[in-house]
């Protein structure tokens, strides 16, 4: 895990000559020429109007697709309707949870600055003891926590305690304080509190279902749900069954997804190994599988959205979890780092970058390599138009890898005006200012969407993780008095909740199994094999490259 984070947090948009996730010395490209006319689209129009030098002269430049979009409030809730006869307090959906300051104002009305171990300022909850925050999570007859608080606390609490420990405390408070264990308790009171407890459990299981892979979590959930359903109300029993069945379906889908990932990983081979057994003349390339770059961009979007969908919001926190100084249980620390789906998504980014580089370095003829570069430029351009920034960045990273960027004779034949615009759009300078502007535009377009396609927002994922990492590192989890720094966790939850909205979008494009199979399973070159293919295509230019070429031929091909 430490190695994964080190690699991830070192990433920027690679200079020419860098591997996808790492910085390295750049090799400049030469022989760039202006673009010829293409099918009319946003980028072809921009390419014909702006050269790279024009772009550099402008301090702020953004494509017209996002130039006149007004943000509005997103209205589809995560939980469609409340459970039980009594309606729950209305809480905002993910995208409307947090205002520009990082949390919803007017959530906590209190005349006092400090109340029951919770500290408020201007009616906003800023900090509190862990016990008080847990108490604040549990509903009673007259109170139900706001959804922003539920999401924020369930997300951040795992920095201080296991989810199963929190669940045990919640169950204890619900049972003892609400007298669910007392057969002589007031049935009217139970009738009022039961749907609220069930609603809290439903929000937990729907938003953080992976917590319940822990048998201790599931055991506590079923125990509390059984107490609620054991009363006279048939509605509660039915809703408890629906909640648990929905949870089991989600966990089964996750298990199946992980099995597919493991199968793909176990069957992957190096492209060079395949080449040794099959003549290159009968090898397929991406263009023979999918000749239309627009279709390929759509299939990449399928993969991106599917993998995004399986990332739990808690993985963003668990990726950076550190030992709580007030926690003496050393044995539980490593168990919290459950980030497999997040890591799998980053691995997909790297695979796509290497696939792009492999497809470019594979062809023997210079004109075929140039055609492949132009093909991927069109794919990247369409990814931008769709709002698929992760695939866009992976393609740019692959094309900027040193084995590709050193092919000067190949690049001299490429019409690169559109690629220059894409690079400008994803330029890492000023903390990715251009990209962040485009991302905000895509997010606003999603809110006003008239079609499923316009709802798509797929962020450059490594940068999103980097932002969350520095937010986490920049502020302490606890204040000097031992209180939990809840103001920090409002900001953390705001960023993660935006991701939660994006990952729920269904891909509107038709699936093509043949293309998807190729993208996910076709062997790709290792870094050494890429260099060898590059040197075989365009010979070494200096003694260092010649020595490396000889070494690679000896080690990979067994030639001298």
From TrEMBL:
CDD domains: RasGEF (cd00155), REM (cd06224). Residues 121-248 form the N-terminal Ras-GEF domain. Coiled coil: none annotated. Residues 292-540 form the Ras-GEF domain. One of its GO terms (biological process) is Ras protein signal transduction. The keyword Flavoprotein does not apply. Keywords: Guanine-nucleotide releasing factor. GO terms for molecular function: guanyl-nucleotide exchange factor activity. It holds the Pfam family RasGEF. The keyword Heme does not apply. One of its GO terms (cellular component) is plasma membrane. This is RasGEF domain family member 1B.
């Amino acid at each position: 895990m430490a190695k994964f984070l080190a690699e991830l947090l070192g990433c920027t948009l690679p200079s020419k000559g860098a591997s996808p996730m790492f910085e390295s010395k750049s090799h400049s490209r030469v022989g760039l020429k202006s673009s010829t006319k293409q099918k009319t689209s946003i980028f072809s129009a921009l390419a014909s109007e702006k050269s790279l030098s024009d772009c550099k002269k402008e301090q702020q430049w953004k494509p017209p697709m996002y130039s006149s979009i007004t943000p509005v409030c997103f209205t589809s809730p995560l939980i469609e309707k409340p459970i039980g006869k009594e309606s729950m307090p209305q809480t905002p959906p993910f995208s409307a949870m947090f205002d520009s300051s990082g949390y919803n104002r007017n959530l906590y009305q209190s005349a006092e600055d400090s109340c029951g171990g919770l500290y408020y300022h201007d009616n906003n909850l800023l900090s509190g003891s862990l016990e008080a925050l847990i108490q604040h999570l549990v509903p009673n007859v007259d109170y139900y926590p706001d959804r922003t608080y539920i999401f924020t606390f369930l997300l951040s609490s795992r920095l201080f305690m296991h989810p199963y420990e929190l669940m045990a405390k919640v169950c204890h408070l619900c049972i003892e304080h609400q007298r669910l264990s007392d057969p002589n308790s007031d049935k009217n009171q139970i009738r009022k509190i039961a749907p609220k407890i069930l609603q809290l459990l439903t929000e937990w299981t729907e938003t953080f279902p992976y917590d319940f892979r822990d048998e201790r979590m599931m055991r506590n959930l079923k125990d509390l749900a059984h107490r609620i359903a054991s009363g006279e109300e048939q509605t509660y029993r039915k809703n408890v069954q629906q909640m648990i069945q929905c949870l089991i379906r989600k966990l089964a889908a996750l298990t199946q997804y992980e099995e597919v990932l493991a199968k793909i990983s176990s069957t992957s081979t190096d492209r060079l190994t395949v080449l040794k057994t099959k003549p290159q003349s009968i090898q397929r390339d991406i263009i023979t599988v999918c000749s239309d770059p627009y279709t390929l961009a759509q299939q990449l979007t399928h993969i991106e959205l599917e993998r995004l969908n399986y990332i739990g919001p808690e993985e963003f926190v668990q990726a950076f979890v550190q030992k709580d100084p007030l926690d003496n249980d050393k044995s539980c620390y490593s168990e919290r780092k459950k980030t497999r789906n997040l890591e799998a998504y980053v691995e997909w980014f790297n695979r796509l970058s290497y696939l792009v580089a492999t497809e470019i370095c594979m062809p023997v003829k210079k004109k075929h390599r140039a055609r492949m570069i132009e093909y991927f430029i069109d794919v990247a351009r369409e990814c931008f138009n769709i709002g698929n920034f992760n695939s866009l960045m992976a393609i740019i990273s692959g094309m900027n890898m040193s084995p590709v960027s050193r092919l000067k004779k190949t690049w001299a034949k490429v019409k690169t005006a559109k690629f220059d615009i894409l690079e400008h759009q994803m330029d890492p300078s000023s903390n990715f200012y251009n990209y962040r502007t485009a991302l905000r535009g895509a997010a606003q377009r999603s809110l006003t969407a008239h079609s499923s396609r316009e709802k798509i927002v797929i962020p450059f994922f490594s940068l999103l993780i980097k932002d969350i990492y520095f937010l986490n590192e920049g502020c302490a989890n606890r204040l000097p008095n031992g209180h939990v720094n809840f103001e920090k966790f409002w900001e953390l939850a705001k960023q993660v909740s935006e991701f939660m909205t994006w990952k729920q979008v269904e891909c509107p494009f038709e699936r093509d199994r043949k293309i998807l199979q190729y993208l996910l399973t076709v062997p790709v070159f290792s870094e050494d094999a890429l260099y060898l293919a590059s040197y075989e295509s365009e010979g070494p230019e200096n003694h260092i490259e010649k020595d490396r070429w000889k070494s690679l031929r000896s080690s990979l091909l067994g030639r001298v």
